[in-house]
Amino acid sequence: MAEASAADVAVRPQAVSLLGQPLYSAPPSAEALEQLAEAQADYERDPDDADNIIWYGRRIAYTGDYHRAIEVFGEGIVKHPHDARMYRHRGHRYISIRKFDHAIKDFERAVELIDGQPNEIEPDGLPNAMNMPISTLHGNIWYHLGLAYYLQHDWENALRAYDTAYAVGDNDDNKVSTTHWRYMILRRMGRDAEARQVLTPITADMTVIENDSYHQLCLFYKGELSYADIMGENADTPGGSAVGYGIANWLYYSGETSRAIAMLEQLAANDGWSAFGVIAAEADLAAL
Q: Which UniProt keywords apply (predicted)?
């Protein structure tokens, strides 16, 4: 079944970009298929177990089959309607396929479900270099809700969500990632003094395990890194897309509209189309 899913992913578009282009997933790696087979076996042994459902859906998504992953999380919602994790993960994959209204609905429901509940560490599906999970369920819900609103250019709601995501997190990775988005939103809103203020807690000596790109961008916004310092050669990774999108925005704020648009167009043509920087570039170009 995993092999059939992989073959299907390769021949049908998973989404249509905001610029009207069909988007195809790359063939999944052998490791991704092996992990999917393990998660599928667990799911088939006990398809009602919430953790089994979540990991089955996550592993399907990591093969690029976002529609099937959304179906699995939907089945999970039917079985566990009060489990915020189901809405959190389905909402993420709605973002991947550019269905932002659906994503917002899921994340807002997740926000309702976590109200008054203790936070919890969210296990990584794609571990960082230190194999140390850095994110939480509450933080990820608010973070992705902010992103979904950002992609619709709903700055007020995006800022509300990212301010909450910043407050929820208690590590430097969270601080740099949410600060990056808060800064960009405030600049888009013309609130430049507030944008500079949110950068104050960001320093070069922070302990950042995973979100190096966001850390570098924040230091760039502060004037502590140069353009050359952060524009690396590998722009085709999610981190590279994040840097490219941050720089494109900075050029836009600085009045260099032609350069900003050229960079957004380059990002939108990136094969790694599920990266948030790529989706955001599409959203900006579609709004021109």
A: Repeat, TPR repeat
